[in-house]
Write a structure and sequence with these properties.
The complex is a heterodimer of chains A (about 280) and B (about 300).
Chain A: H1 3-24, H2 26-46, E1 50-51, E2 54-55, H3 56-87, H4 89-95, H5 99-126, H6 138-165, H7 169-186, H8 198-204, H9 208-220, H10 235-263, H11 266-279
Antiparallel strand pairs in A: 1-2
Chain B: E1 8-19, E2 22-33, E3 37-41, H1 48-56, E4 63-68, H2 78-82, E5 84-87, H3 99-108, H4 124-130, H5 146-158, E6 164-168, H6 176-190, E7 196-201, H7 204-210, E8 213-218, E9 221-226, H8 228-235, E10 239-245, E11 248-254, H9 257-267, E12 272-279, H10 282-293, H11 298-309
Parallel strand pairs in B: 3-7, 3-8, 5-6, 6-7
Antiparallel strand pairs in B: 1-2, 1-4, 8-9, 10-11, 10-12
Helix pairs in contact in B: 8-10
């Protein structure tokens, strides 16, 4: 086996080890459970509320899944990369032969694993108190698969760029959290977008968050597309816009990543270490 | 494989580094033979880390020739990378991994580069014994003490059975016991298959203990190069003779201490006691060399001031 294929396989091995660590780590779990609990709480209070003849909780559940994909791709990636730069994981990968390939494969696979786990953690319990989720056939399952992957591809490159540019892991979180929260607010995740002002609807439709919510709703909701902007499911437009974001992202992200990785050295890490020690985390 | 540079594991000629209008390195030249332990010694801010990072291929240089294992680090490929060991100044990466788990995992990256004459990687279990971390093999990395963590870093640097090992300030923040354990590890390493070691430190006694040869870096250039003894001789050929005569202490500096003592004893067959001949210690030498070459460094002093304010 050649060295590149081998390090890709080692990347998978690493992602598996780290996914197990994620599941066993109490701190990580407390955080995950807390967020899942908040989402489930929102759904619980929305379960009996109706908008345009449909349960609000029923609208929100698939929207939430879409949002979580965008959140994992964008904020998650930014956080992981800035953190790996700060603590030396990335430099460690650079110091071993074909280590960067292993690193990229490991991080991608880890992102997929943990996002699936997080989505399931919200979706499965919600099924017990949200009525009306339709069963998905093979077609629905395929749609979920491409929405999930394309959603991550459309968001992760931008997270990677921010994670490569920020000076500390804390600012990696801050810089992604605010824009994402803003987009979530206008993208019809927690309340139908039809209630928004027209120009906000237009802005929302430029970004992946709206389309991910829309795509997931199309899979889980009854055939009639109530409370949607165009009165029907727009899966073609969803695929197109997410693909466009992915293509632009993949044009720029590798360049920024390479530039960042090339500059990564012991002394720049040492500086960040001192800063991190000063601020106490 | 027959080229002359092959015998030199590290060969640096007129290396220069400049950030903006600030010169960090101004024409640094030195080399290391295969199997040699070379210590790069110098005060903080002398350019040690910059030098070692250029050799590791982590930093571009402004000018000069650099060869590590016959290859320019700026163009080193993965095969070249596989022949190096880098001990990073790491601190908390892979905190949740097990000690053996991480070492074993990283070792697997070196398997494609193994040859019948040079086996890669080392056995992880064996390496943990070498650095004295066998009892901690199953612990999480975040539970290690600072000294143990550093020894794990060394083990990771060694896992690929490197021909050249780089260690940047390996013992910063160690207590005396960890420091001595660490020195033992380095001594054991030098017995291994002729690994060339380049180590930076600002600790003089450490350099003296470990080095086959010491290269002193001050103010961006090499100001001395040789074994500890050679350095001492280079700076000062004088030795100090001390003795007590009639309850009176005497001190005399001489370039030929032996002849002086002989004469002294001939002249005073009785009454001389506590005779002592002392060559300049490496510390005297080092201070003298650094004092001569240190540029007035406002930068470090302003940094220190800032630290105090915080």
């Amino acid at each position: 086996m050649n060295a590149v294929a081998r390090s890709a396989r080692l990347g998978l091995e690493r992602s598996w080890i780290e996914t197990k660590q994620f599941l066993r780590n109490p701190q990580e779990m407390v955080w995950t459970v807390l967020i899942v609990a908040i989402f489930l709480g929102v759904l619980w209070f929305q379960r009996n509320k109706e908008v345009e003849g449909i349960s609000l909780g029923l609208l929100t559940l698939p929207s939430l899944l879409g949002m979580m994909v965008a959140q994992a791709g964008f904020s998650g990636t930014a956080g992981v990369i800035s953190y790996d730069r700060e603590d030396g994981t990335l430099l460690r990968a650079k110091a071993i032969p074909q280590g960067i390939i292993g690193y990229i494969v490991a991080r991608t696979a880890y992102l997929l694993n943990t996002t699936v786990i997080n989505l399931a953690a919200v979706f499965v319990p919600a099924l017990f108190f949200i009525d009306g989720i339709t069963g998905v056939g093979i077609g629905g399952a395929l749609t979920i698969a491409w929405l999930f992957l394309l959603g991550l591809f459309a968001t992760a490159p931008y997270g990677a760029i921010i994670g490569s540019l920020v000076k500390s892991s804390g600012s990696g979180f801050g810089l992604t959290f605010l824009p994402l929260a803003g987009l979530v607010a206008i993208s019809g995740i927690f309340y139908p977008i039809t209630a928004m002002a027209g120009w906000l609807q237009a802005v929302a439709q430029v970004f992946p968050v709206y389309w991910l919510g829309h795509g997931f709703r199309s899979v889980f909701l009854p055939d009639t597309a109530v409370a949607e902007l165009h009165g029907s499911w727009q899966l073609g437009a969803t695929a197109l816009i997410l693909t466009a974001w992915a293509i632009v992202g993949f044009l720029f992200a590798p360049r920024v990543l390479r530039r960042m990785a090339r500059r990564e050295s012991g002394s720049s890490m040492q500086e960040r270490k001192e800063k991190a020690m000063n601020r106490g985390y | 494989m027959i080229s002359t540079t092959q015998e030199l594991a590290i060969d640096v000629t007129d290396l220069q580094m400049r950030y903006g209008d600030k010169d960090i390195l101004t024409g640094v030249s030195f080399n290391a033979k295969q199997g040699e332990v070379l210590v790069l010694l110098g005060p903080n801010g002398a350019g040690k880390t910059t030098t070692i990072e250029i050799l590791e291929g982590f930093r571009m240089r402004s000018a000069g020739e650099v060869r590590v294992l016959g290859t320019d680090p700026a163009r080193g490929d993965e095969l070249w990378r596989a022949r190096l060991g880098v001990v990073l100044q790491s601190w908390r990466d892979h905190a949740k991994w097990g000690v053996f788990e991480l070492l074993n995992h990283l070792g697997k990256y070196y398997e494609p580069y193994s040859t019948p004459t040079h086996k890669r990687p080392f056995d992880a279990q064996h390496l943990l014994e070498l650095v004295g971390l066998q009892p901690q093999a199953k612990q999480q990395i975040q539970s290690l003490s600072g000294g143990q963590r550093r020894r794990l870093d060394v083990a990771i640097g060694l896992i690929g059975n490197p021909e050249v090992l780089f260690l940047d300030e390996p013992t910063v923040g160690f207590d005396p016991k960890s420091r001595r354990d660490f020195h033992d590890v380095i001594h054991r390493l030098t017995d291994l298959e002729g690994t060339t070691i380049l180590l930076t430190t600002h600790d003089l006694s450490e350099a003296e203990k470990l080095a086959d040869r010491i290269v002193v870096l001050a103010g961006g250039k090499i100001v001395a190069n040789g074994s500890a003894d050679q350095l001492a001789k280079e700076v000062s050929s004088q030795a100090e003779v001390r003795w007590v005569q009639d309850d009176q202490k005497h001190v005399h500096s001489s370039s030929n201490a032996t002849a002086y003592v002989r004469k002294l004893l001939e002249q005073h067959p009785k009454g001389i006691s506590d005779l002592e001949v002392r060559r300049a210690s490496l510390e005297d030498t080092y201070m003298k060399i650094v004092m001569q070459h240190e540029l007035p460094s406002d930068k470090t002093s302003s940094k220190e001031k800032k630290g105090n304010e915080l």
